[in-house]
Structures are given as C-alpha cells and as structure tokens.
Amino acid sequence: MKTLKRYQYERYAVLCNLAYQPTLRQTQYGFSPRGQRVISNRFGQPMIRVLWHVDKEEAIVVIKGSHNLYDWLLNLALWQKDCRDYQLPYAIHAGYAYLLRQESSPTRNQDTLGISVIDKLFETLRYLVAIGKRITFTGHSSGGALGCVLADKLERESPKSIKRVVTFGQPAIGGYAFHRHYCLSHKTYRICCDLDIVTFLPPLPLLYMHVGKMLWLYNGKIHENTPTWRRLALSLFSWIVRPFSYHLMSKYIRNKDFFDER
C-alpha cells in the first residue's frame, strides 16, 4: 500500500469539512466551473458532492456524515441488510443501507423523482469513468463508512476505476463477509484521531469489522494499524489520567502566551 501524502490528507480533510456547509464553491478548490454534482437526501439537503476538473484525472466523491436528527437515529439500526440488489456479496448496517436507498430530492431541472441516492450518484460516476476519470471516495463519520461500500461497488462494476478511499472518524459498516469480500483494502486509509469514540462503533466486535489501513493520529504521532483493543485501552487510560496532566509544569509553560510580553 502506498503512503498517504500530507497534501492529500489536507485536501480530503478540508473537503470533508466543507461538505457540511450548504454550498461549496468548487472553483476555489481547483475544480472546474461545471465540475460539481450534488446528490441530496430525502429532505433536499446535500449529502454527496462529486467534484472534478476537466484537465485532471482524479474526481473526488465527498460524503457528509449524519447531519440531522433522523440520520443520527438511523445509527441505532444495528442489524444488517444484504446488498444483493446492488450486486454486493455481503450485508451492511441497516441504517446506512437505508441512507443509500432513500429517495434523492431533485437538485437540477433534469432530475426526476423516485431515484435513490445510490442510483443518482452512479449516473454521474459512470459518466466520469467513461471519460477517463479515476475516482477517490472520502467522507467523515457515517459518510466514510458509506464511501467504502460505494467505492467497492464501483470497483466491481469498473475495475481499476478507484484511485483511493480516505475516511475520517468512521464507524464500521459491515461484518466478516464485508471484511472478507471488500476488494479495496490496499487503497483504503481509515483516519482515526486521538480519542474519537465513534471509531469504536458499533460496539459489536463479532458483527462489525473495519477494512483498510488504519492511521491513528495520537500523541503527536501517526500509528499504523494499532489493534482496536490496544487503541481502546490507551484511550481509556488517557481519559482517566487527563485531569492530572493539567498539573504538570509543561502545561503551565505552554500557556505562557496568555501573558503580555512586558
């Protein structure tokens, strides 16, 4: 597996952050004036943005995490639903499966009612692949989990069409069958930051498993593929001792900037 470069990390992180805003002016971030396709959820809120530049090979799919109360409640649908209707040999988290199958509200005059989020997305992706684009999927939280499934589906449909998958703070989305059949582990980077509890969810280790290479940003370092039990133990230990860390002189020294220079 190739190393994720710093500029790539920053680019995907910025786009995932911008995805939570109502609008995204793609030309400010190196994409073409007509290089954005917005896929909305059932409420008409932007859920997925596809971004590209006519002169560049990479197109980027940015998927937003849970952004309303209803979506947060869907996180509690911990049973699994099979994806055979999308030619995938495994089941995934039922709540996230619903997010993909929900009706996408029209965002353009030529859009029609009754088309699901996943079907509307793939209309755009098939066009981009046909003109020679390679697709990167990135997303935060549940958006990252959905990105893994969507990238896997596209790779099976159009081999070698995926450039990479980069997720931030994602929960697991499938079990052993998903872990076994997922075909992009060598191109998937799962970024976990410090004590992010969502990265341990759902709390059902025999039913849910992660895929790809984990990069844990912890204590000023990048730790690769740290076992979940060790990461959880270190996180719990950190939570316990954190109040005492504020007593250290190093903490007082770092806060010197609160005072005037005189």
UniProtKB/TrEMBL annotation:
Could you read off the lineage of the organism from its UniProt record? Bacteria, Pseudomonadati, Pseudomonadota, Gammaproteobacteria, Vibrionales
Protein name per UniProt: Lipase
For biological process, the GO terms are: lipid metabolic process
Domain Fungal lipase-type: start-end pairs: 60-204
Mark the transmembrane ranges: none
**Classification via SUPFAM superfamilies:** alpha/beta-Hydrolases
Q: Which organism is it from?
A: Vibrio galatheae
